[in-house]
Structures are given as structure tokens and as C-alpha cells.
From TrEMBL:
<comment type="similarity">
    <text>Belongs to the RecF family.</text>
</comment>
<keyword id="KW-0067">ATP-binding</keyword>
<keyword id="KW-0234">DNA repair</keyword>
<keyword id="KW-0742">SOS response</keyword>
<dbReference type="InterPro" id="IPR018078">
    <property type="entry name" value="DNA-binding_RecF_CS"/>
</dbReference>
<dbReference type="GO" id="GO:0006302">
    <property type="term" value="P:double-strand break repair"/>
</dbReference>
<dbReference type="InterPro" id="IPR001238">
    <property type="entry name" value="DNA-binding_RecF"/>
</dbReference>
<dbReference type="GO" id="GO:0006260">
    <property type="term" value="P:DNA replication"/>
</dbReference>
<protein>
    <recommendedName>
        <fullName>DNA replication and repair protein RecF</fullName>
    </recommendedName>
</protein>
<dbReference type="GO" id="GO:0005524">
    <property type="term" value="F:ATP binding"/>
</dbReference>
<dbReference type="InterPro" id="IPR003395">
    <property type="entry name" value="RecF/RecN/SMC_N"/>
</dbReference>
<dbReference type="Pfam" id="PF02463">
    <property type="entry name" value="SMC_N"/>
</dbReference>
<keyword id="KW-0238">DNA-binding</keyword>
<keyword id="KW-0227">DNA damage</keyword>
<dbReference type="GO" id="GO:0009432">
    <property type="term" value="P:SOS response"/>
</dbReference>
<dbReference type="GO" id="GO:0005737">
    <property type="term" value="C:cytoplasm"/>
</dbReference>
<keyword id="KW-0547">Nucleotide-binding</keyword>
């Protein structure tokens, strides 16, 4: 999979951009605060219909404008696919093959990207919410079924929380409707947990040898799914359903009193173990960064296995956060495998030595200059 071209109209600080890319490594080079990250954000938005930097689509619209348009052409194994997204104050509209898409879920997955930015180092030591967001974002790209189940779960969860709040404030009294919502939540929640475990098991298997190579076989990485359901119940959808039903029955009165759902995959977490120790708590900063890097590199092969094509790799100023050894592993792993986009204020000696024939764009104040022309 490759992004052949990108067009931006009134996106962030880019008034009008029309650019074509190399199938290998593309580098956006220039000082900070010139718009390098905005370019990677545009590619990310084109893939996932939303930004990784803001929840507000209006933030993507250039100053004083009413609309932002991001469009591009991706090359898939079966042919070229034009994609387009328009953002206005009233919402967003997605088009694929020049046809409007009624549902964004039908659009997501056409273009798969993996983003690695300095904040991704928080994947290991950050909050559980960061890790849940990570697995939902990445697994939704890999599996349309996962995306569907996750969306259905979130919809029922919102309905259940709203009704619990009504029960807690005596605006509603019918607990039978709560039982109906609980049944739906358990059905989708058990399938979501099971799909997470399946994909996470594959991700862990791919990350383990990568981590071992980076640490010269001195460390062993394990990734565990931390659920409120006992490990013994995480065997099938039926056993997970039974465990969730039992938990919900026990805390029903408490949930009504609190006015919110207290258990489920929306509260689960990941744990990263290095040599049997929790790296978030006991690991050094170097170990935490190595773990994050191994997981990100493992995603490349997992996405290839699940979708049949390699994703597009986005590296947002991450080289400056890695030492020479980790830079070497990252740059070696991506060479001749995935189309890559890198933002950086300057190229390190390691990057200059390892990156083969990069296409370099100089970025200044929302302007792109192709250094290869």
C-alpha cells in the first residue's frame, strides 16, 4: 500500500498543496513550527477520518476558512483508490472512488497507517486510556469486524450510562430496561474482549523477537491483557459472557447508585513485562522506549498479516527521541518494506547512512519545496 499523492486545501497552515510521493522514504525537513507535523496529520486524517492531535474537526480548518479538504490517491494491490475528506463546521463528508460514503465505517480501512510520535512513548508508562485507545485505533484498521463491534459496544455503553444516570436521579424506575441494555452490552463486550485478546496475542508474538534483537537477547518482552474478568474465564465468548453477567449482577445496585457502568472492556488495560517485571513501574526510560518501539514495529507485520498489505508508516520527529542503536533498528526494519514519511528538523548521521534514496521536502511556513527537483 502506498500514498501516491496528496492534496490539501485550507488544511491547518496549508492553503493549497498538491504533491506526489516516493514509494520509499519521504522526509519533511525544516525548523519547528513550520507545518511538518501538519502534513503527517493530514495523511493520518485521510486514513482514519479524524486527527490524532485534536477531537475538534474545526481545528483542522485553516484560519478564517469555512472548509478544509484532504484528498489523495492510494495504490492498493487491486488498483488505485481516490480518497477525499471535507471538513466544515457542520461535520465531515467522506468520498471513496469519487462516491459519497454514508458511513465512515465503510471508509476506514481503505488506507492503513501506523503513526509513531514522541507521545507514543507514553504507551508504556501512560494512563490505561492511552493503551485502550491504541488497541482500538490500530485493531479497527486491521479488522472491519472489530471496528463494527467496538462501535456497537460504545453505542450501547452510552445508552446504558444515560439510563443509569436517570435511575440514580429517580428520573426512571424501570430496571427491566437496564437488564435489556446490560444483555446487549455483555454480548458486544464479550466479543470485543475476545477479539482484543486474539489480535494482542499475535502482536505480542511479533514484538517479542524484535524486542530481543534490540536488546541483544538480554531481555524478554511479554504483553498481557488486563481484564476485570478472571483469566480463567477469558477462553471463549461464552465464558466471558458468563463472567460479565455474574459481575454485573453483583454490582447492579452500586451502578444504579453511582449512575455509571463500572466494568467492561472500556476499563481494561495492557501490561508490558520485561524479564517478568512491569516495565511501566520498574523499567528504565530506555527499556520503556525499547518496548514502545518493538510494539510499533510489530504492528507493521501484524497489519500485513491481517490485511494482506503493508501499512504506511508515519514517523513524527521520533528519530530525535531515540538513540543511535534504536534509530538503527527502526530504520533497518522499515527499509524496502513500507512507504515511510518522516518529519525532522535535521537528519542524524545514522539516518543519512541508512535511508536509501529518500525524497526530501523542505518545509517552511506552510510551503513545500521538493529538494529532489
Amino acid at each position: 500500500m502506498q500514498l501516491l499523492s496528496l492534496k490539501l486545501n485550507n488544511f491547518r497552515n496549508y492553503a493549497d498543496v498538491d504533491v506526489t510521493f516516493s514509494s520509499g522514504v519521504n522526509i519533511f525537513l525544516g525548523p519547528n513550527a513550520q507545518g511538518k507535523t501538519n502534513l503527517l496529520e493530514a495523511i493520518y486524517v485521510l486514513a482514519l477520518t479524524r486527527s490524532h492531535r485534536t477531537r475538534l474537526d474545526k481545528d483542522l480548518i485553516g484560519w478564517g476558512g469555512k472548509e478544509a479538504i484532504v484528498s489523495g490517491v492510494i495504490q492498493r494491490a487491486y488498483g488505485d483508490v481516490p480518497l477525499s475528506l471535507a471538513f466544515t463546521s457542520k461535520g465531515k463528508k467522506a468520498r471513496m472512488n469519487h462516491l459519497d460514503q454514508a458511513k465512515l465505517a465503510q471508509y476506514i480501512g481503505q488506507m492503513n497507517v501506523i503513526l509513531f510520535a514522541p507521545e507514543d512513548l507514553e504507551l508504556v508508562k501512560g494512563s490505561p486510556q492511552i493503551r485502550r485507545h491504541f488497541i482500538d485505533r490500530e485493531f479497527s484498521q486491521m479488522s472491519p469486524k472489530y471496528l463494527f463491534v467496538a462501535n456497537q459496544y460504545r453505542m450501547v455503553l452510552r445508552q446504558r450510562n444515560q439510563y443509569l444516570k436517570q435511575l440514580s436521579t429517580k428520573q426512571a424506575t424501570d430496571e427491566l430496561f437496564l437488564d435489556v441494555l446490560t444483555e446487549q452490552l455483555v454480548t458486544y463486550g464479550s466479543e470485543l474482549i475476545l477479539r482484543r485478546i486474539k489480535l494482542l496475542t499475535q502482536l505480542a508474538a511479533a514484538a517479542k523477537p524484535i524486542h530481543a534483537a534490540i536488546t541483544e537477547n538480554q531481555e524478554v518482552l511479554e504483553i498481557k491483557y488486563m481484564s476485570q474478568v478472571d483469566d480463567s474465564s477469558l477462553q471463549s465468548q461464552e465464558t466471558i459472557q458468563a463472567a460479565l453477567n455474574q459481575r454485573f449482577e453483583k454490582i447492579k445496585a452500586r451502578e444504579i447508585f453511582m449512575g455509571t457502568t463500572l466494568i467492561g472492556p472500556q476499563r481494561d488495560d495492557l501490561q508490558f513485562l520485561v524479564n517478568d517485571h512491569d516495565v511501566a513501574t520498574f523499567g528504565s526510560q530506555g527499556q520503556q522506549r525499547t518496548t514502545a518501539l518493538a510494539v510499533k514495529l510489530a504492528e507493521i507485520d501484524l497489519m500485513k498479516a491481517e490485511t494482506g498489505e503493508y501499512p504506511i508508516l508515519l514517523l513524527d520527529d521520533v528519530l530525535s527521541e531515540l538513540d543511535a542503536s534504536r534509530q538503527t533498528h527502526l530504520l533497518t526494519a522499515m527499509q524496502d518494506k513500507v512507504q515511510t514519511f518522516i518529519t525532522t528538523p535535521s537528519l542524524s548521521d545514522v539516518a543519512k547512512q541508512l535511508i536509501k534514496e529518500p525524497k526530501i521536502f523542505n518545509v517552511k511556513a506552510g510551503q513545500l519545496i521538493d529538494d529532489n527537483q
